[in-house]
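Problem statement: downstream parser choked on a complex file, so we are re-checking the raw output for the adenosine-5'-triphosphate run. The parser issue turned out to be on our end (a line-ending mismatch), but while we're here, posting the original submission so the record is complete.
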Amino acid sequence: MAAGRHGGYRGHGVVRERELDLGASRRSNEHHHRHRHPSRHRDSDRRRDGDWGRDRELSNGYSHRRSSHPPQRSRSSGRAEDREPGELSSGSGSEESGGRPLKVREQRVNGVAGVSREGGAPSPIKKRKHSPAIWDRNGSKPQVHDVVRSIREVDTVVAELPLPPPCPLPDVSMLASMAGGRSPMDLDVSVDAQKIEQLQELENTRIMEDEEEYPTMRNILTSRWADADEEEEVVPKKKRSVSPVDSVKRGSTKKVTSPELGELVVGKNSREGPSRSSDSGVVLGSANGDLEVDRGDYMDLEEETGDDSSAGRMLDTDSESDALRSRTPEPTWSPRRCINMLQGCRSVDEFQRLNKINEGTYGVVFRVRDKKTGEIVALKKIKMEKEREGFPLTSLREINILLSFHHPSIVDVKEVVVGSSVNDTFMVMEYMEHDLKGVMETMKQPYGQSEVKCLMLQLLEGVKYLHDNWVLHRDLKTSNLLLNNRGELKICDFGLSRQYGSPLKPYTQLVVTLWYRAPELLLGAKEYSTVIDMWSLGCIMAELLSKEPLFNGKTEIDQLNKIFKILGTPNEQIWPGYSKLPGASVKFVKQQYNRLRDKFPAASFTGGAILSEAGFDLLNRLLTYDPEKRISADAALKHEWFCEVPLPKSKDCMPTFPALNEQDRRIEKYMKSPDPLEEQRMKEQGSIGDRGLFD
Ligand SMILES: Nc1ncnc2c1ncn2[C@@H]1O[C@H](COP(=O)(O)OP(=O)(O)OP(=O)(O)O)[C@@H](O)[C@H]1O
């Protein structure tokens, strides 16, 4: 099975030969070129992005002899304004459509899923979601100093909004009708939509229940994507710890609190570790001194002490929060509601366990056989917080996104199944033989350029699809990229993903595994968008080419130093706005620009990673310091590198490997970047020697 249909594992000692696989490449290039680069696209791309063939200075500060590339359209003035956030589109939201979601038809280009613009054919999966931006229309942001007024305003705002009414608590009859008395396996696409609705209801129910607990914290009750406005909430303050980010911004007079960069506010039993979400419990200090909260972060958390009221559970008491607290009803969460929501799902007993694939921070993944159909699938058991009853909201988000999104580069979630209790909930996913991290650890030589192109194209297609649909993945890394022996790459693990809206809002910085975390996050930027994912893609591209993580820092400071060492220390000139970032006040050693080419030369006599001029240009664009200038997924897909020899390898010709996921994974001995939650836990336990940038 692991050998795939190629009759055996293709070894990886012939990388360079593969580069010369020009026959297939040429064919696929013609095809690729026809579909991916029709002249009208190229013209418009050039108009927008400039001709990258002329001399220019790279936006990460490196002077480079290729062409100047004018800054891309401003992220705030591009798609974000043109298209209503939350509008689901599988197409490329390019300028040709004025940024509106295009009606597209998916097609395979060189074995890689692509999209083409289609005049009128509606996308079968086009779907409108409720936009977080809707909630911003008044531009009002509740202030900490006026919590009581905010409470009233929240009520008013909620009453005004043209969104669906608050979802009723689910009941058995609703669920019975949802399931239609049939197995979820029998459900067709329309019923699938019902399942998604059900998940949305459940997510909303959780939000509502939290609202019941914290009525003053929530101003969005009904939107499935309500959490996207996470930081608009107003929370009474409690000084748990002081963030150097805030110190930098506000000096020593700060009144409100922010945990340290990415600090996780843990539940009542901190020894049990943080909540399911990396976002969970993260409190952000806003520039104006108000306290802003990452919405989802409260969902799964319990009070720190039993006698704390829920509204003030993470925060120090002051008179406002006391007043607030006195109005706060006791938590009313009932696990029964969750159980009800899961009725109609098949039982996990209908699957035969074959082996445990891997255990991540948030779930355990098993390889199983569907007893009914014989199909091999992956089951991800959702880890529940021990400290609190209830279904983790972030797991709901992950299920919700994965059930909603269908794309060849995104792992397909088929259904949700349950065990004997609500604590045993599983996502049934298509089974993939490997993840990219595991594959690279077993490879003797790194991928060649044509293979990297094949993988990067698939990855970019998936990321473009997410961004077009207003979702940030926020944890792109090699272990979250699954591979099968048909050469297909799929993005998984949407545990940290989140919808974003326009205008940009502050989000928690504690996202993205350290090694793949964008510099603006490391430096404490509170507003970020899709380009944080693009930085991760740059790190992944470099890792594919060299088989080594590009920046493997141990702490935030170490990570920044590693980045600066290779790309140079940024300054206001190459990154306008840099000096205003909280972390920029730290005196970093001045490093010269830009040593990336040393790592990826155009030719190598030692068998090291090589990268053409165009490939290097793309890598530089992905690793551009200034987020405004960093390349988008859409533009990256059209990059010249994918059109030059060696052409992207077709998926069918990609190397195959023994299926790692058919064995229980050994304890990982490999260098591993802690994920954001793990990182937080280590910080709390003091096991990161070199404290973080803002500690
Ligand atoms: N559909 C799948 N098929 C095969 N293996 C999978 C599948 N989904 C996940 N895995 C394996 O399980 C691992 C963990 O999965 P996932 O990243 O979804 O869990 P997690 O708990 O969120 O992990 P993390 O700690 O990295 O955030 C993946 O790296 C991959 O090796």
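For whoever reads this later: Residues 277 and 394 are 6 Å apart (CA to CA).
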